[in-house]
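Regression test case RT-17, inverse folding.

Input:
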């Protein structure tokens, strides 16, 4: 059964204004009636035979009171309709912007002017939400495009190698197998990184007490051969730093930060310092490395997926897939922490992770 159409908010506000004004007028007339006519004598001669009596006053006052009530009712309806329209005009602009956003237009902004009242705050909050949503959608589109490109590259290489093996039986099979293995390993690493990124974004993991200092030592021990190969001094300092979260994800976070500091370093003789520190209400992990100078305007792009250094991710001798800092940022965000990247004056980068303090 179809429901009756609801009355608009403007009409309800207008009726409310008119009703309130009518009730206020009725109360005022009742007070006048009670306190004025109370002292008027109710006899045929009036007061001292000169003043009018109550009967005459009632006959004179009642039509004027009825006319005043009718005027108040009409004035309340018209004035309430106008005032309600002026009050709800900002809400109409917000509704139009919401409809545009529902149709896919996220670039529209309300930018309401005037005094900072409730509607202005709602408009500013809606504009902020649209800005964040537009940025998120654009980031997801770039991520999908880059992921498709990166996954297509090893698959295209594998197909090319298979075609070569099929058309040229005399080709060195060991070399083809080795190149196929490298392309397949790259595709597997990229897929695992994408799955880890998706898992950390969802925040579906068990939380427990972990010690960042132990995770830093484990990551440094794992990456020590890479540091020795590149002739980089790797140092871990700091005391116990308790935090709460997933030990597996936090270990991946520390490992990615240390590996990124080792790879993007000086060709030889560089340093990487990993420091953990427990502060009131926060657990801090700082990874600092030497290396080439990083322009400050490029620092915000380093946490975007498939960014490697200052350029887009490409195949080469790099061990990663361009998702290292993106995974770090996602893990930190899933643990209600913050990630700060700052370039060093002498070259290199300082990555500082602040997580909520965990149980000691």
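Golden output:
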């Amino acid at each position: 059964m179809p429901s009756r159409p609801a009355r608009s908010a403007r009409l309800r506000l207008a009726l409310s204004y008119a009703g309130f004004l009518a009730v206020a007028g009725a109360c005022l007339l009742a007070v006048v009636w009670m306190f004025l006519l109370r002292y008027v004598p109710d006899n045929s001669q009036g007061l001292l035979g000169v003043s009018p009596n109550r009967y005459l006053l009632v006959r004179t006052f009642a039509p004027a009171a009825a006319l005043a009530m009718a005027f108040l009712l009409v004035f309340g309806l018209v004035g309430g309709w106008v005032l309600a329209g002026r009050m709800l005009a900002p809400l109409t602009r917000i509704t139009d912007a919401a409809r545009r956003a529902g149709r896919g237009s996220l670039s529209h902004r309300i930018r309401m002017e005037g005094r900072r009242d409730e509607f202005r705050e709602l408009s500013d909050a809606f504009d902020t939400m649209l800005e964040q949503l537009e940025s998120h959608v654009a980031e997801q589109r770039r991520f999908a495009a880059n992921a498709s490109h990166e996954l297509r590259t090893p698959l295209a290489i594998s197909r090319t190698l298979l075609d070569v093996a099929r058309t040229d039986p005399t080709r060195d099979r060991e070399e083809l197998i080795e190149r196929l293995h490298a392309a397949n390993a790259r595709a597997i690493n990229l897929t695992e990184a994408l799955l880890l990124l998706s898992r950390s974004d969802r925040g579906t993991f068990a939380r427990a007490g972990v010690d960042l200092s132990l995770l830093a030592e484990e990551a440094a021990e794992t990456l020590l051969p890479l540091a020795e190969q590149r002739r980089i001094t790797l140092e871990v300092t700091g005391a116990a730093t308790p935090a709460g979260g997933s030990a597996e994800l936090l270990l991946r976070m520390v490992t990615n930060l240390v590996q990124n500091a080792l790879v993007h370093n000086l060709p030889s003789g560089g340093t990487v310092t990993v420091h953990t520190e427990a502060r009131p209400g926060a657990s801090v992990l700082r990874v600092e490395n030497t290396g080439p100078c990083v322009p400050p305007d490029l620092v915000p792009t380093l946490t975007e997926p498939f960014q490697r250094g200052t350029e887009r991710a490409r195949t080469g001798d790099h061990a990663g897939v361009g998702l290292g800092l993106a995974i770090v940022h996602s893990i930190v965000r899933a643990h209600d922490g913050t990630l700060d990247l700052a370039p060093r004056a002498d070259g290199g980068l300082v990555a500082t992770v602040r997580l909520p303090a965990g149980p000691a």
